[in-house]
Amino acid sequence: MLCDCIWRNARLATLSPNQSGLGEVDNGIVACKDGVILFAGPAADAPPGIDTPESIDCEGRWITPGLIDCHTHLVYGGDRAHEFELRLAGASYEAIARAGGGIVSTMSATRAASETDLVEAALPRLDALLSEGVTTVEIKSGYGLALEHEAKQLRAARELAQHRQVTVVTTFLGAHALPPEFADNPDGYIAEVCQTTIPAIAAAGLADAVDAFCEGIGFSREQTRRVFQAASAHGLPVKLHAEQLSNLHGASLAAEFGALSADHLEYLDADGVAAMGKAGVTAVLLPGAFYFTRETKLPPIDLLRSAGVPIAVATDCNPGSAPLTSPLLAMNMGATLFRLTVEECIAGFTRQAARALGRSDIGTLEAGKACDLAIWDIERPAELVYRMGFKPLHARIWRGH
Ligand code: DI6
Ligand code: FE
């Protein structure tokens, strides 16, 4: 059986759900054909006759699935360094938002930017993710807050995949904040999102899912419900920024709509956990936002574990609450701040992140999955989580190349 390439003499963390822990394999190989994994496992178990003109000696390095950053706001105009200084001087994230800064200030810079400007501004951030082994990135809109600019943001996100070897998954987040045109009329804005924007974005095929910010400084549970109904009517799966700063019971609403994920979750309660567990909603934890906003309330990790809720971890890369472009540092924060295990952090950026995106074709090293690999100069997988500011990536393979 001829394949395109074999990576041999490697140690594997397959993340296969059929193996315990990280699915570690000592003397392993990965064989690839047409961008898809043909075999990943112990060299001794390789199908007979598997052969290739091209074989790469990994010299004992570790191979994990390529990392998946399943929650980012990577495409935006401007920055919020000034607001960071205001926060250092004592202002809160919420107070800045209520005073007309926050998401709306990034909206102004994003509206002023062209699609090309947005791509150029996002590329260095994307490159930072890629330099740490990312092969799939989810990118949300939510800084345009009007059809023209939301569509521009989503097109810019899609265009990034023309410039780099990476899979881009897009999410429409029109219900992120109230734009000034609708000041004092949030229901009017939600009506526009549901009746005009979602149908247009869906028709143009610009989004893979729909998200909303269910929060005191965002939208109510009832408004979020309307957004979810519109998304469902257009065949788009939903996910939710839920219980980040307060408990509006967004997670149970997400569960009711069979959401792919509920994200943040610091203020999630036991009922919300139970609802997520029952509906199979993945929890996406964002320790970078927790850190950067100096949140002190921890997400209910033990409850999530005992309810069997899959836990993903992501950077939340955005200009306001998490200007973070390091998945490895996000893992470190997940471990130190949230007490996640090494296994949970690595699964959170691979197998569980794939779940949060509804993707069954990525996230593990198994036959039939996309050949997206991260090859690391490390002695043990825990080093990926343990170090801060270290750059252990040896090579990144996307679709076999
Ligand atoms: N929660 C967040 O942490 C980001 N969006 C959201 O709904 C922050 C967005 C920003 O401050 O620009
Ligand atoms: Fe976010």
- Unreliable stretches, pLDDT < 50, 5 or more residues? none
Choose one word for the global shape: globular
Q: Provide the spatial order of strands within the biggest beta sheet.
A: 6-7-8-9-10-11-12-13
Which structural class do you get from the secondary structure elements?
A: alpha/beta
Description:
The chain has 15 helices and 15 strands. The protein has 401 residues and is of the alpha/beta class. The chain has an eight-stranded parallel sheet. Strands 1, 2, 3, 4, 5, 14 and 15 form a seven-stranded mixed sheet that branches. The longest helix has 18 residues, at 186-203. The model has no long low-confidence stretch (mean pLDDT 97). The protein has helices at 81-88, 93-98, 103-112, 115-130, 147-163, 186-203, 221-233, 250-256, 270-279, 287-292, 301-306, 327-338, 342-348, 351-356, 382-386, and strands at residues 5-13, 24-33, 36-42, 55-57, 62-65, 67-69, 134-140, 167-175, 209-214, 239-242, 261-264, 282-285, 311-313, 373-376, 393-397. Bound molecules: 3-[(4S)-2,5-dioxoimidazolidin-4-yl]propanoic acid and fe (iii) ion (FE). The site of 3-[(4S)-2,5-dioxoimidazolidin-4-yl]propanoic acid (DI6) has 14 residues, from helix 3.
